[in-house]
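Weekly puzzle thread! Below is a chain. First person to post its structure in token form gets bragging rights.
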Amino acid sequence: MFPDLNNFEIYIIPGYVDMRRQIAGLASLLYATTDIDLQNSNIFLFCGKTKKILKAIYWDKNGFCLWQKKLNKDLFPWPKTEGDIENINLEKLNLLLKGIDFWKEHKPLESKYFF
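Winning reply:
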């Protein structure tokens, strides 16, 4: 059964991952690249280079669970550059699964001068 996502931190792993990796390969990638506790109510999202497959892993009491969604048409929006792991909220996860690119949303202006 899928967990209640309101109790989880959701992390995007930017860049592209080889989608042939399964639970052990994705978990070892996280162990090597992050210091986030993998066994503490965290979901980690990965995307393939074609942007048609999205995988999520999370710890469930006594082992990792893997969730995968493969699109037959269209692509998932995904950050193009590798960078820091990004923490997103449940609303952004829903937008991502619907195909809405929230990375292109308008950002607040920081300038003190407006014309």
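Puzzle host: Confirmed. Bonus trivia for everyone else. The chain has a mean pLDDT of 87.
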